[in-house]
Amino acid sequence: MPSSAPDIAAGRLSPAEYAANFNDIHPPLDQHQALVEADRCYFCYDAPCVKACPTSIDIPLFIRQILTHNPIGSAETIFEQNILGGMCARVCPTETLCEEACVREEAEGKPVKIGLLQRYATDTLMEEEGEQPFERAPSTGKRVAVIGGGPAGLSAAHRLARHGHDVVIYDAREKAGGLNEYGIAAYKAPDNFAQAEVDFVLSIGGITVEHGKALGRDITLGELKQSYDAVFLGMGLAGVNALGLAEEALPGVADAVDYIAELRQAKDLGSLPVAGKIVVVGGGMTAIDVAVQSKRLGADEVTIVYRRGQDKMGASLYEQELAATSGVVIRHHAKPAALKVEDGRVIGMTFEKTADQDGRLVGTGETFDLSADMVFKAIGQTFVPGALNGAADAIALDRGKIKVDEERRTSISGVWAGGDCAATGEDLTVAAVADGRIAAESIHRALTAA
Amino acid sequence: MANLASNFIGIKSPNPFWLASAPPTDKAYNVVRAFKDGWGGVVWKTLGTDPPVVNVSGPRYGAIHSNDRRLIGLNNIELITDRPLDINLQEIKQVKRDWPDRALVVSLMVPCEEHYWKDILAKVEETEADGVELNFGCPHGMSERGMGAAVGQVPEYVEMVTRWCKQHSRMPVIVKLTPNISDVRQPARAAMRGGADAVSLINTINSIIGVDIDNFAPIPTVDGKGSHGGYCGPAVKPIALNMVAEIARDRETHGLPISGIGGITTWRDAVEYMALGAGNVQVCTAAMTYGFRIVQDMITGLSEYMDKHGFSSVDEIVGRAVGNVTDWQYLNLNYVAKAKIDQDLCIKCGRCHIACEDTSHQAITSMLDGKRHFEVIDAECVGCNLCVNVCPIENCITMEPMTSGTDPRTGFPISNEYANWTTHPNNPMAKPVAVVAEPAE
After folding, report:
1. Where is the 4Fe-4S ferredoxin-type domain (chain B) (predicted)?
2. Confidence class of residue A4 from pLDDT cuts 50, 70 and 90?
3. B165 among known catalytic residues
4. Cβ of A45 and B351 within 8 Å?
5. Class of B6-324 per CATH?
6. Catalytic position from the list B112, B138, B165, B349
7. CATH number of B328-423
């Protein structure tokens, strides 16, 4: 093969193979399976799983409701705490949250399948009822602007609408849903679930979505503060970390999040070009997601290279195993040294091996090369504070993200924030939902205070 | 392998596991399959007069399930055999001839007139069956016609019919008792007076097992209506065990052979019945749930158990626990036990804590130094055993008797003296000297 023709091609697989590879990774439980699994729950006192859930869903109660043939009541228990309980049931790293805390994990190393049971209940309600189960309180006449229609924004908007406030969501993209729509791996939420869930959340009424409106570009915080009674910032992370190497902008080098977004929006996966040999730099969920999806698109060799050891990877052990069983190779303790370039495009990378020395990561000087026609950067996303230009006062940051207090109030009066753009917990869908709900309750208290 | 051979009122079988009179023993086909799988004997499904009864052609059973649909209790509205008497008798004769080492007892239910009993006994004797069992138990259907439980609920009838049967037959007579009565000792004593060789119990418990809450009718529902039926299966075992023990320790009936019936599913259940006085056991629901093959575990399990305890005959088990069944008033009120949680086995589900906290004695912690930790507070623990029962881990919580020192709950020193309610100062009827439970004989 002449070196000038990179091995990047669409349609590497048959339509049936694409369908199989991107099908539901965790098929839902049927009723029998759900009842048998629900019977394993011990209905613990002050249950550890609830404490481990960022949205504090009453897990023993919702499982008991499944057991008594009350799946609708079960779903209401879930949605009361987490209106995006359907997506969280699909994408939560339960193995490091509720299921890790399950006493049956301690008892026999096999936790109750809480995530799948949550999906059983929420799917049942969404399929049988269609609409979300809550009613709006009488209108308060108060108006709240929500920036970003991702998990944090949707959660905040729904809770505010429930309390009778009128909400306008400003979303920079064509569709609401945020990373649920553009970010997570396709096989975790097939059948356009992200949009179905957006419709479900919005069915409460009182929420308007303005698409294609980005803060700092189309609207400013100053204007919003003037025309709304409160503002919630939930716009996520717009920036992507760079490798810090020369020629990073050359063809063949891409941000993992952009490629995943393209994949998620592709009408036909067969139209998406993918390389034969791919290198992914990073160690988090995004690295796993882009690697596994590339492999499932038909890439021959996909290698994740992470600069630290396996135990330091941001991706859960479960996700690492998923990568391994999908045929992805993970190499630890190696950092990018240089991009190899030929004819103006990337043909591979050079890595330097690393070692932990007195708690610090150092290069050993030993290098190795990996050939690749595509290199994905998955080394983290960052908050871009520039979007907040126009704020009356500069907003306080904490470790590069918006600083908030326990109620998710920012340093600017009348402005709350949550989700990935705020300095709260982990960057997880479920954490964003918790932020949105907590902020909405705080906003509600502020707006209704005598 | 221990010797499981059983001799129950002269009826020999290779093991003490019989199938009870019920659908599994309605025809030669089923009985032969049971014998092939190793059952020691059967009580043939109840014969009646010709023309035979008819059964409903809709649902005859209803059930209570655990949450993962393990069958815990079964209820039925099936009547006695609906096959012609002659066919049953021919099959009984053939099966007994083909399986001479197995026990074959025939269950009977005919109207309460002497000639009916005399007539059918002669026909059964002809088959060379090992004995008869008088069905005074079925609480549904037949009882509306003055048979089954309608007889078993009147001790005088029980005695009368038993006497007829002993007069008109040389076969051993087992009287099957209904539990649908306030004091099971009364019909047992009546059977004994009538000359019964043994009693068997329990027959099924009168019941409505459930209601269809969409169509508002009892289960099982036959064309929109339901009727009370007979309840059996693991759920009835505690009721049956008590009735067996009541008869075993009654002064009048002590020593009367008992065939134990009611929810026996495993060899362990069988041992419990035998310890409380049953000479053998009869099984139905377990076989109807899992098939006949379960007897293989019952045989090996009982054998291992007997070897472990050094028992050379099943008779050595029979009645071993009867002397330890007593009245509440004779229980030792000086005995003090405290729950103890094995922290290595504890999985921290907290069920013991919430059960004790909400519904009992506030004697189990939930936290220690800010950490989830479940531990018994001896100063509050009354030794009730609830925590042991709700704990999902076997042997994680145990009851430890106190043998010395002071009970931190009451402040009283632990006494090794036996003291019961009969002399307790709080008892208005207290006697000056403690009455010790007297043995039945």
Report:
1. 337-366, 372-402
2. low
3. no
4. yes
5. alpha beta
6. B138
7. 3.30.70.20
